[in-house]
Amino acid sequence: MPDDLLPFVIGPTPYPSWWLWLAVLLSVLLIGWYAAVLVLTMPGRRIRALPIIGATRRELIKRRFARAVRAVGDRYRAGELAPAPAAAAVSAELRAFLHQATGARAQYMQVDAIAAGELRSAAPILAELIDVQFNADSTLDAGAISESAEELIRTWS
User: Fold this and answer.
1) Contact criterion met (CB below 8 Å) for 52 and 59
2) 46, 131, 140, 142: which has the fewest Cβ within 10 Å?
3) Which residue from 84, 73, 54 is spatially nearest to 150, judged by alpha carbons?
4) What angle do CA 149, 152, 154 make, to 5 degrees?
5) d(CA 98, CA 84)
6) Considering the entire predicted model, what is its pTM?
């Protein structure tokens, strides 16, 4: 009879050790989630200053906009777009890239203002795009200009 009461004397059994590791893992995931939300909602100018995240962001932006410009050029070469709409689309993508990469409001700037500032390497391409877009007698090729714009985006530093 005394042996039947022995399990009630020693107290509860300890919890499994994998619970501790699960709690640690969940805590790390929660901290990582908050850090990711903080970084992803930061303004672009502050993200550009971060060493690893800023460099990764720059490369992703370059790839995304180069791919978009290449798609517009491919559509132009396939005959889906006329020269003026193709030039307008490439100009919009290039200006959006300049805004994302530098923070300058390139979408709203004149080519002369772009040529006078830190974006001066993009000014000749933008001038050619404007010529194709608004000059019906232009001899410039929108496909070649889109390749130039794509190269500018890929080599932007």
Assistant:
1) no
2) 46
3) 73
4) 110
5) 21
6) 0.75
